[in-house]
Fold each of these.
Amino acid sequence: MDFKDAIRRQANGAGRGCAARLRALLRRGRPQAAAEDGSRDAARGEDGQALIETAVSLPVLFALLFCFMELCLAFYSYDMISESAREGTRYAMLLSSTCTNSSGASCTATAAQVNTYVPGLGWPNLACGTMTVSTTYKTPAGGVGTNIVSDFVVVQITYVFPITMPFVPKNSITLKSTSQMPIIQ
């Protein structure tokens, strides 16, 4: 009998310990009144901490996100004008003064035609900037050339990239790209 009584006492003691822990956990969930000295539980004093941290960090996060997006847009715009300048020089170098079509008519491209061809290539102008195209011809020695074989065609594009970030003064960046190729036909 002594052995059975000892087991019962031990089981009742373990049960009382679990019940006490359960009561303590349930008490934590209820709002507690301030103690007589005015202090509160430490966890109750940190209720708005996450809200304040979020309010402070979100504007910084959004500012970095918008800066990154504007930077990506500037790199895209530079790539767009670089590719447009290369396409303009390819167009001009293939349509030199010796160019004729199958019926024998001239298909020569002038500088003005190249200047109107380049903006119409269809590249999306996502930044809504302004593009200025300038086409010139040079001799191999560096002088002013004409549209003949062995001269060089130079297409220079100037692009005004507007900065559209919030809380930043309305400024712009001027991007330039130049492409030069020899006229081969």
Amino acid sequence: MKDKFSLTSCQMTALVILRFLIGWHILYEGLSKLLIPNWSSLSFLQESKWIMSGFSNWIITHSGVLSTVDFLNKWGLIAIGLALVLGLFTRLTSICGAVLLLIYYLNNPPLIGLEYTLPSEGSYLIVSKTLIEAMALVVLAVFPTGMYFGLDMLVKKQRNDNN
């Protein structure tokens, strides 16, 4: 039998704040890439050392694919970040954000024996801020934070009014 429980307002508020902070970070990452002239994921993909390295090398060798990946990366980050900040389609957006961050992680994981030429923000071993943020998005995907505070409330109300 499934146990039902409800969150307190304090607990849900903390989750909403977490959603907003992650959304802001992802949105800012996308906007900063958009505003940097000629930004490209090329250097990041060249650093790929683990299970995504073959796919990353394939992207690099096809300029049209690289341009498409750059476009999708910038605008995907902006869309995911904005939706998280606004609380719009939060479950789907949280899952998409987690998948994107896991792709970043799998390209450049902090594993023993892998050395990167690009500087990193800190010293990590297996667990990085990217992995933590991805898992936080997985947690947010299972809680209806957009229904508590976000545009998901309005979407649900609109659907109910139309039925």
